[in-house]
Design a protein that fits this description.
Oligomer: single chain
Structural class: mainly alpha
Distance between the termini: 65 Å
Number of helices: 9
Largest sheet: none
């Protein structure tokens, strides 16, 4: 063993080992920093979506209807087979709900397809998904109008609601 330490290339071996450790440390530091940056970007994205839900007048009215607190209109009047409202008003409210469903669909897509947000992050919007799941006409509308990822996400989230 003493001949190994006396070998003239020992300094090169130590230098190579130091270089390898330095490179590994740099790569690991980069990955950790990148993961923190991505987590922050996800947080920013989720906060932007939440602010949009809170501040957009159309979405605020739609959520008020979804929660059953609107003074003039109900979900059954918009999505029911027989409705007392005229078709122009009904179409206006359908468009408003489409805006809400588009936003929720983007969140579902980010979770289900790209895995960009976690289930826990999606649960931050669970109240809206829960309210949709409570009304069969909304579930059916989502299924028939290209928002089926919302129903898929609801089924995944239901396991954690009890």
């Amino acid at each position: 063993m003493s001949t190994f330490f006396a070998h003239p290339n020992w300094e090169a071996v130590v230098a190579s080992a130091v270089t390898i450790v330095t490179v590994l440390f740099t790569v690991i530091s980069y990955i950790v920093t990148r993961l923190k940056e991505l987590a922050w970007r996800r947080t920013e994205f989720l906060c932007e979506q939440s602010q949009y839900l809170d501040n957009d007048p159309v979405l605020v009215e739609t959520i008020t209807i979804l929660e059953g607190r609107h003074p003039d209109i109900t979900i059954s009047e918009i999505f029911g087979a027989e409705t007392a409202i005229d078709s122009a008003t009904r179409n206006e409210y359908l468009q408003k709900f489409d805006k809400l469903f588009n936003l929720l669909w983007r969140l579902c897509y980010a979770h289900l397809e790209t895995k960009a947000i976690s289930r826990k992050e999606l649960e931050g919007f669970g109240w809206y998904f829960s309210k949709i799941s409570e009304n069969s006409s909304l579930v059916e509308y989502c299924e028939n109008n290209g928002f089926d990822d919302i129903n898929t996400a609801i089924e995944k989230l239901k396991r954690f609601w009890t």
